[in-house]
Amino acid sequence: MKNLIALLVMVLMASPLMADEITITAEDAGSGVLSVFYTVVSGAPVGISLNFACSDGATTTAADVTNVDPCFPVYLDQAHDTGETYNFDPVQGSPLANADAAGVPAGAVSEFAICMGRLGQAAPAIGTPIKLCDIQLTQGTAASTCVSIAADTLRGGVVGSVFTVNVPASCVTVAFVETKCMKSTAPEYAVWQAWGEPDCWCYDRQCRGNVDGKKTYLRYVSSTDLDLFKQAYNKNDAALALITNGMCANLDHAKTYLRFVSSTDLDIFKTYYNKPDASVPVCDMTNYNFWKVAP
After folding, report:
1. What pLDDT digit, counting tens, does each position of 11-47 carry?
2. How many domains does the chain contain in total?
3. 2 neighbors 82 (Cβ within 8 angstroms)
4. Looking at the domain assignment, is residue 154 inside a domain?
């Protein structure tokens, strides 16, 4: 049974049966993707297991590991979790593994392992860089993350190897593309751009009258929002441009009666003013990539 054979591979990975020399490299492939490569200098490895650690809260998940080398189709930690039903032909699951214990992470993780075994497949070519996998990372608290890579001593690294990790300054910097909060397909996108892409249009309840993006006096739409709304109400474009965050009072993101903050916005504001939380739902997410948080 393939699951039993996979367990045998786990034992082999921890046993120094041969002296393989493998070089690991990695690079920023763009859009938050880390591409990992290996080059066999000598030998015929039956397994590769690496540890990764991302800085600044960047994460990945099991589903985000793609373009995996078909030479290593046995995912040992997937076999651990699946049990007797595990089968690697066809390939099943993900090679992502917990950094400090057996098994596949249940959710997003900043520290993780990639663990893959080979059984019956042809040995990888010697001297040729081969992609091990692509790892899509999700942005944390910074515009980039520094990913450190090392042999996974818990699972044996590479069988009996002289192991070299060739990455600059002990980590690889992966940059994230700054995604705008509003989708380019939104009907109001051009207007939003013309007004400097105000963050406030991406507050989750701005369309309900939460002009400042904050909850004040236990209400999303309170007197602080009213003060801001009154300053911007019925002003022409030139006057509105002189008001700090004046466009934040444009609740319907439209220009009506030649005004960006008009009676249509006032009607919205009155509907939600001083109402309890349950009566002030979040805005429709259709035209947005994510909600902004007010400073």
Report:
1. 444 444 445 678 888 999 998 999 999 988 888 888 8
2. 2
3. no
4. yes
